[in-house]
Write a structure and sequence with these properties.
heterodimer, A: mainly alpha, 2 domains, globular, B: mainly alpha, Arc Repressor Mutant, subunit A, two-stranded antiparallel sheet, about 50% helix, about 10% strand
């Protein structure tokens, strides 16, 4: 937990320091709490990534390869050629500053290099000096900067302080996707071994076992069975979800935290109740056992490498289409990268609800449907029986998770589901939700403990909006549809608004579903007595 | 990689003090690691948690779900925090020599 008090963190100065922005020096030792530990050598070795070693950003010597500068230049050149978007983004920014105060990391820290425009400029300045005619001639006068070891260290500090949430992009008049600038900067740093362990260990685990947590098939099965035991205790129903079942109609993929960590496991229990309720022909997979794709925070090649297993498994099992759970950045990958990387998935069919007959044409290219779309269609067609009063101890608000909201436009569906399964729903202010949602402060691999001060700062705008609805309406539950949110928001709430708990949307669906043949439920999915409003603050 | 030394124990640990080679764990190491967690004396209750974690890890290769840990040991989460002030994942798992979980957790 952070050592600083709320009052200390709230002393935010928005006046830029006097020194020239081109000065790249970062005192890592003094800024502990706002950077992440580097990747352990064993993870890079496992993946075949360059320059595995033991080092710390607080060290003077980062143990870079001798020709690191050439490697970065060559990598930059390659990517400018490959991604036209990158060149456009680097050339078109006019420094209008529309994005400057839209980033939660700037709002929470006051550090001007967390203004998206200036963060991008850290990379753009090198581009200008070495890849544009004006910069080659005029150098610093044209905003060019030499790529020195200090500039590289500054990249590490600031590009691993951006969560690729894309809030700034919503406000950019040119439509610059700043997340893609961060992605390229991280990709370049990966070429010389500058990466963080909270990203690379999940990537290595995912490559080895199919999921971030390193859960092997027998453990996957054991975890699922344990959660079914819990469901049996609460509802009296024995559910036995198929795993790796060939010939099932639908493959269902969730983020691995949903079958491992609180509060995601209650969301997982909600999924299982829903599928039982409608008699869905589906299967889980112990191989495609991760929705998330930390390749997105590493490099395009890694995205492709990790994404592939979903489709390979769908093909192996012979399913018709894929249903995806409450995962965040997975949907950015599915919606915007997967089709050109591993698609088209011609061997699958366009998702069609076996219950309502609805054909989800908008997923025609990916063949993958979001669970909130699936569930809201069921509700709209009157196929689900609910008792929303089972969620009466909650006053609920909804945090739009960055990637489903901005990356694929999932805005109405989770709200429609929530309003159907609970009686008390309240929105946070308009400029903090939907496309303008604030980040949880810990996405893109930054949700680790050592980066806690920056997480609490970056999460402050979100927490502030939660505090507003807590004070105005008595909100005590913050719902979301992303596993990173479910991991980071409880910590954020504990610090800023401790009266508010965190849950997924399908946990509340599971609570409200009236199942055929069930007992009268003594508790909700968390084991808390139904109707016990006092217990809500402990979630 | 930092080396953690306590009495006769000398082990490689990560930045947060989790041991890097879980197979090198034994009861003496557990005592040494417990000292970093503000646990001076490992009682029977501590051992019940540590031994469960250890056995689970050897069988399943990861830490158990916290809910399962509570159920199998009979301790609620509050009690586990009393025993290991940093909690089940950061305190108890560290003493039991398990690696730190990473990802969306």
């Amino acid at each position: 937990m952070a050592e600083k008090t709320q009052q200390e963190l709230l002393q935010i100065r928005y006046t830029p320091p006097r020194r020239d922005w081109m000065d790249p020096s970062v005192d890592f030792e003094a800024r502990r709490g706002s950077w992440s530990y580097p990747a352990a050598g064993k993870n890079l070795t496992y993946l075949g990534f360059p320059n595995p070693r033991e080092w710390s950003p607080a060290d003077e010597d980062w143990k870079l390869p001798d020709n690191w500068r050439e490697i970065i230049y060559e990598g930059f050149r390659e990517r400018l050629k490959k991604f036209r978007s990158l060149r456009v983004f680097l050339d078109t920014c006019v420094r209008c500053g529309a994005c400057a105060d839209k980033c939660q990391f700037f709002l929470g820290s006051g550090d001007p290099k967390n203004m998206p425009v200036l963060r991008a400029e850290l990379l753009r300045s090198v581009y200008r000096r070495d890849f544009t005619t004006a910069g080659k001639i005029l150098g610093g006068l044209a905003g060019g900067r030499e790529l020195t070891p200090e500039v590289l260290k500054e990249w590490y500090y600031y590009f691993y302080q951006c969560t690729e949430c894309r809030r700034c992009s919503v406000f950019c008049p040119y439509g610059i996707d700043t997340a893609e600038i961060t992605m390229i900067a991280r990709e370049l740093m990966n070429l010389v071994g500058l990466n963080i362990n909270w990203v690379m260990e999940p990537v290595a685990n995912c490559d080895r076992t199919g999921n971030h947590l390193g859960i092997q098939p027998h453990t996957f099965k054991d975890n699922v069975e344990f959660l079914c035991d819990e469901l049996a205790e609460i509802t009296g129903l024995r559910i036995d979800p198929p795993i790796n079942k060939k010939g099932a109609e639908i493959l269902f993929i969730v983020p691995s935290a949903d079958y491992f960590a609180d509060p995601g496991i209650f969301t997982f229990m909600g999924y299982l109740l829903l599928f039982e309720h409608i008699g869905l022909d589906y299967t889980l997979s112990a191989y495609a056992s991760e929705g998330g794709n930390f390749g997105l925070f590493t490099s395009h090649d890694t995205i492709k490498r990790l994404n592939y297993k979903m489709y390979a498994e769908a093909k192996r099992l012979g399913v018709k289409w894929i249903l995806g759970g409450e995962c965040g950045h997975m949907w950015r990958v599915i919606h915007q990268y997967m089709d050109t990387m591993n698609g088209p998935a011609d061997f699958l069919e366009v998702p069609k609800s076996p219950v309502t007959g609805t054909v989800f044409d908008h997923t025609a290219s990916t063949k993958m449907l979001h669970i909130c779309e699936f569930t809201s269609d069921l509700i709209k067609n009157g196929r689900l029986k609910f008792d929303p009063s089972r969620n009466d101890r909650y006053r609920v608000t909804f945090h739009d998770s960055c990637n489903p909201a901005r990356g694929m436009g999932i805005l109405e569906e989770p709200r429609y589901v929530l309003k159907s399964v609970c009686n008390h729903f309240y929105e946070m202010p308009d400029n903090t939700i939907r496309e303008q949602t604030f980040c949880c402060g810990g996405g893109a691999g930054l949700g680790n403990d050592e980066n806690m001060e920056m997480r609490l700062r970056g999460g402050l705008p979100r927490a502030n909006a939660v505090q507003y609805v807590h004070e105005k309406y008595g909100v005590n539950l913050l719902t979301c549809i992303c596993a990173i949110d479910r991991a980071t928001l409880p910590t954020l709430m504990d610090y800023w608004v401790p009266e508010v708990g965190v849950s997924g949307v399908h946990e509340l669906v599971g609570n409200a579903l009236i199942m055929e043949g069930e007992n009268e439920r003594p508790t909700d999915l968390r084991g808390e007595p139904i109707g016990d409003k006092e217990a809500a603050s402990d979630v | 990689m930092p080396t953690f030394t306590h009495g006769e124990v000398s082990i490689e640990v990560d930045e947060d003090g989790f041991m890097q080679e879980p197979e090198g764990w034994n009861e003496v190491v557990a005592h040494a690691l417990a000292s970093t967690e503000g646990v001076d004396d490992l009682t029977d209750e501590h051992w019940k948690v540590v031994n469960y974690l250890r056995e689970y890890y050897l069988q399943f290769g990861v830490a158990p779900m916290i809910r399962k840990l509570c159920k199998e040991t009979g301790f609620n989460l509050k009690r586990i925090y009393e025993l290991f002030p940093s909690g089940p994942a950061k305190g108890a798992c560290k003493v039991a020599g398990l690696p730190k979980p990473t990802g969306c957790v």
